[in-house]
Design goal:
This protein is α/β, with parallel strands linked by helices and 248 residues long. The protein has one domain: Rossmann fold, CATH 3.40.50. 45% of the residues lie in helices and 16% in strands. It is built from nine helices and nine strands. A seven-stranded parallel beta sheet has the order 3-2-1-4-5-6-9, sandwiched between helices. Strands 7-8 form a two-stranded parallel sheet. Strand 2, helix 2 and strand 3 form a beta-alpha-beta unit. 41% of the residues are buried. It binds NADP nicotinamide-adenine-dinucleotide phosphate. NADP nicotinamide-adenine-dinucleotide phosphate binds next to helix 1, strand 2 and strand 7.
């Protein structure tokens, strides 16, 4: 699909993968709006990327989501692309009962419910366009769960399922539905600290490059590196990958 001169909203776009995609989209001549909860990250993104527009919004809060979409609808000439990228990842040990679950923001609210509601709010706007797109960021862990991130992995599997249904429902509208399936990214804020570079991970910038190329070439499930293999893997291969990543 064409990705220039478009209005694009990226949730969680002030850091990591969202910011790396924003950099490329601004470079291609798009109007890019990013949102997030932390003011300092939004201001940092604004100062590093000329032309980007930032709006503070917690996408897990109904009032804030609605205010965001209505502001975009009022202030811009419509919306062409929603990138549902905001996400969090937490270790949860069920042997501790409710302890880990109560200690964190809710991954189901942020990773899954927010994407559902942001999509429902955006579809009427996107349907006004001849060509538009929804881009859902899931994860390789949606295909091969990592047991120490059980809720995260489950929300990402749900995003894969949701994306399949959405793509089917929106056939015949101008909205194309993409899924981005990153492998582990070593230089984002998701884990709270950067990781060592390894053969099973990549940088946010490399993944963003794959995202842009996938969008431009109408690749509806965009993986890269290890996650690309998992998209076409057999059940046997996925079971082997599960054993391997859970013994690291
Ligand atoms: N890093 C990886 O290994 C990896 C692998 C596969 C998939 N992914 C996925 O890629 C996406 C981007 O993650 P990342 O790795 O780039 O991590 P990141 O740097 O932590 O980016 C996540 C962004 O989401 C924002 N966010 C979180 N909760 C939000 C909320 N309720 N409302 C609005 N914004 C919110 C965060 O900003 P605030 O906290 O300021 O709101 C942050 O800017 C996520 O969906 C993640 O699951 C990452």
């Amino acid at each position: 699909m064409k990705i220039s001169s478009s209005n694009v909203l990226i949730t969680g776009g002030a850091t990591g993968l969202g910011f790396a995609i924003a950099q490329r989209l601004v470079g291609l001549g798009n109007t890019v709006i990013i949102c997030g909860r932390r003011e300092d990250r939004l201001r940092g993104a604004e100062s590093r990327l000329k032309g980007i527009r930032v709006l503070k919004c917690d996408v897990s809060k109904e009032y804030e989501r609605e205010a965001l979409l209505s502001r975009i609808s009022d202030e811009l000439d419509g919306l062409d692309m929603l990138i549902n990228n905001a996400g969090i990842q937490r270790e949860v040990d069920f042997r501790k009962g409710m302890a880990d679950i109560r200690a964190h923001d809710d991954e189901v609210d942020i990773n899954l419910k927010s994407q559902i509601y942001m999509t429902a709010l955006a579809v009427p706007l996107l349907m006004k366009r001849q060509a538009a797109a929804i881009v859902n960021v899931s994860s390789g862990l949606g295909f091969v769960p990592m047991a120490k991130f059980p809720i995260y992995s489950a929300t990402k599997a749900a995003i894969h399922s949701l994306t399949l249904s959405l793509r089917q429902q929106l056939k015949g509208t101008g909205i194309s539905v993409f899924e981005v399936v990153p492998p582990t990214l070593y230089d984002t804020e998701l884990k709270g600290h950067p990781l060592e570079k390894a053969d099973w991970n990549m940088s946010a910038s490399e993944m963003a490059e794959a995202v842009i190329s996938g969008l431009q070439n109408d690749v509806y499930e965009i993986g890269a590196g290890p996650s690309a293999k998992w998209l076409d893997a057999s059940r046997k291969d996925l079971d082997a990958a599960f054993s391997s990543i859970n013994s690291r």
